[in-house]
Amino acid sequence: MSRKAVLASTARFEKRPIASLKDLGEAQAYLEVALEGYEQTGETEGLLLALRDVAEAQGGVGELARRAGVNREHLYRVLSNRSNPRMDNLLAIISGLGFRVRLEPQRVPVQ
Fold first, then answer.
1. % helix / strand / coil in the chain, to the nearest 5?
2. Which end of the chain is more exposed for a tag (fewer CB within 10 A), N or C?
């Protein structure tokens, strides 16, 4: 999902200060939209944008690096638009933001 598509899907965060993403409920809703976009398209740009936005709201990438236990410079590279992050990096970032990944069944149409 492109940056433009994520911003269109999450326009309410563009209009409000990024500080609203300090609230875990707001941050969760924002990240879920970005993750759904990634699931649909396979493009990481929107998901990385959302992770950067939440990191910024929660004290910045440096603070996230400390909480996630990763090198700050490495984290900047992982969150760049040119990155294709590994699963272990994504899980560390998500955990550092105060979340965890859970599995749920896909909605499969009954035939």
1. 65, 0, 35
2. C
First to last CA, the chain: 29
- Can you tell me the mean pLDDT for 56-60? 93
Q: Residue 40, Cβ neighbours under 10 Å: how many?
A: 10
Q: What is the biggest distance separating any 2 CA atoms in the chain, rounded to whole angstroms?
A: 49
The span from the CA of 21 to the CA of 58, in Å, is 8
The domain limits of the chain are 3-96
The verdict on pTM exceeding 0.90 is no
Backbone dihedral angles phi then psi of residue 13, each to the nearest 5 degrees: -80, -25
Q: What's the CA gap between 73 and 49, in Å, rounded?
A: 17
57: nearest Cα among 13, 11, 21, 25? 21
What Å distances lie between residue 49 and 44, 73, 97, 98, 104, CA to CA?
9, 17, 14, 17, 24
